[in-house]
Amino acid sequence: MACVDRCRCCMDSRRQSSILYNILKSEEQQAGSGESAPQQPGPEGHATTGLGCSCGSQRRVALKSPQVACKAASAVLVKTLRFVKNVPCFQELPLDEQLVLVRSCWAPLLVLGLAQDRVHFETVETTEPSMLHRILTNKGRGSGEEDEPSLLLLRKTPKLLGPPPQPCGSSSPKLPLVGEIQAIKGFLAKCWSLDISTKEYAYLKGTVLFNPELPGLHCVQYIQGLQQEAQQALNEHVRLIHRGDQARFAKLNVALSMLRSINASVIAELFFRPIIGAVNMDDMLLEMLCAKL
What we know:
single chain, 15 helices, 2% strand
């Protein structure tokens, strides 16, 4: 709070799952097989309006191009859930155990997917979160744009979706902080600097997915064994492929540890709220887990 006193700029600073799933799946099908998620080349940082502010990490930001970034994240989420469902050991777990794992790890798995697909996104500082919703709902209205099926579908189903997102207020979800976005971008940059292979990403995802420390699990020893197998497979792969880099296995695990600082609510607020409003991720994940992807 002392930072607020020192810097004046700080003062300026129902159920939707079925519809969301249909949106994500339809967009992925339109993208075509083998097509990677849309990328947005640009600087790794975000646009800022202040210079030399010591409390910059406490400012709130929004996506610069939400329609592009949210569509990319949606495609990655579908691919991530398909990957999880196709893991044989995961299929053998009871449904309630599967739900505990997925609800806990969907966000880090999504960020791993963003890194694997090299999805770039930029953010801008904002003091009015509700303005983002107005831009999204007004842009292209009546223009017949074909590249925004998500928004067009959402506008046609107001009764099913419920009321639009509330304006920013004391009870409204907050936009992510600059520091929270920096944590995501820092992880992506770390992964890209390591040039992680497809197999390495798969083993890292297995390590994240099979977390035996989650409350509510009953097959703890089995899940712990699966996590250990993922780590062992990663280690053996690294030793075989990267014989000249003895520290690579440690580097990969250091990158993995960076995921702990990324909050799932930040991911939901950043990539999903701009296109569908308030998101009940538990409901959405349950439907996607039970659906045929």
